[in-house]
Amino acid sequence: MASSNTGPKLPFSLDRYHVSEEYGFVLPHPLAELPPYYQPWMDIARQVTDLIHDRTLRSYIQQMPLLDTRFLKSHRELRLAHLALSVMTMGYVWQEGESATVKVLPRNLAVPYWEVSQHLGLPPILTHADGVLANWRKRDPEGPFDMENLELLLTLPGGESVRGFFMVTLLVELAAVPGIKAIPAVINGVHAGDDGAVMGALEDIARALCSMTEALRLMHTYVDPAVFYGIMRIYLSGWKDNPSMAEGLVYDGVQAEPVQFSGGSAAQSSLLHCFDELLGVSHELQSGAFLTRMRDYMPPAHKRMIQDISSSPSLRDFVVARDSAPLTVVFQHCVSELLALRSYHINVVSRYITIPAARARQLRAQGEGREEETLTKAPTALEERGTGGSGIMSFLKTIRDRTKEVSLSLPAPQE
C-alpha cells in the first residue's frame, strides 16, 4: 500500500466493491439460463466444442439472428450473456487453429457482444471473470465446493481438462476468501493504530495464501499437460501480442479498424493484485505495466478495490514504525506464503507450458507427431508466451523476485 492523502473511505468495507463475504470475487450463484429471447445464443454456446470439432461453428454463428441486448436486465443475466458470447467468439476466431484465423467478427455476434461488454465494463473477449468467476454450478446444490460436485456452465475444447482448469482456478479463488475478508481489518487496524487487529488479520491472510497454494496443487490431478498445451491454450488466446493475429480483430458494426485484446491470464484475477498492494509489492516497469493493464479485464468494482487498497496508508511502513517482533513475524509470514504461491505457480507453468513446448519442438523437428499429435497441434506463436501475451517464465520470475524485496528483518531486541 502506497501512502496517499486520498485514500478510500473508512472504515474500509468489502460490500462497496461487490465482493461477497462467502464467495469473494466469485459471482455467487451464476444463472444457467437467459430469457427465452436469447435461446439462439445459448443453443450455439452449449454446442461450441462439438461445432468446432465438425468445423461448422462459423457457419452456425453467421446464420445466428442479431439480437437486441436491452432485454438483459440483471447483472447475472449480463454475466451469462458475456460468457456465452465470449465462448462463441473464441471458438469462431480459433476454429481452424492459428493458420486460418479470421479478421472480422460478424455483426450479429460483434454488436451484442460489444454492448454487453460496455454494460459490464469488461472487454469483448473471454476473461477470467467469465471462464472462472461466472462459469460454475454445483451438481448437488446442497453439496460441497469440491471437484466432484462442480461443473462448468459452458465449455471449450479439451474435455475434462477444461473443467479441471477452470474449476481448480475457481477453488483457488474460494480458498482466498478468508484472506480477502481480512483486508478491511488490516486497513482499518492500520488507520486506528491497532496492532492486535492487524496481526490477527495478517494471520488470516497468511493461512489463505497457504490454502491457495494447496488448491493450485489440484491442477496436476485434473488437467493433462498435453491437452492444456496442445488443445486448450489456443482458445484462451487473444488478439494482442499474438503473431497469429498481429493486427487484431474487427468487430463488425462497432469498429471499422481492428482492435486488440489480450487473452485470458491468471493476472486477470484480482486476488494477487490485492495482496501485492496490501503488502507493498512494487513490480518493475514492464511487468507492472502488464499487471496494470490486466486490471482493465476485471469487473470495474474489483479494479476499484485494488486501487483503494493501493491508496491506503502503507502497511509495511506501519509494521516498520511499530518495531514489534510479533507484528514483523506475522507480516513476514504473509510475504513468505505469497512467495511460496508464486514459486509454485512457476512450477505449474513449467509443467504445462515450458516442458510441453520443448517436447513439441522436438517432435516437429523429428517429423514425428502421430503418437503425440496433441502436442504438435499446439500454436507455435505461443510457445514461450502466456495466453495473456506475456513472456511467461521471465514475467513470473520477475514478479516473484520483486515480492522478496518487501521482506523485513526482525527488530533488534530491546536492551
Automatic annotation (TrEMBL):
InterPro entries: Indolamine_dOase, Trp/Indoleamine_2_3_dOase-like
Molecular functions (GO terms): heme binding; indoleamine 2,3-dioxygenase activity; L-tryptophan 2,3-dioxygenase activity; metal ion binding
Residues bound to heme b: 345
Domain of life from the UniProt record: Eukaryota
Keyword Iron annotated: yes
Positions of the UniProt region annotated as Disordered: 364-389
Cellular component aspect of the GO annotation: cytoplasm
Protein name in UniProt: Indoleamine 2,3-dioxygenase
Species name: Albula goreensis
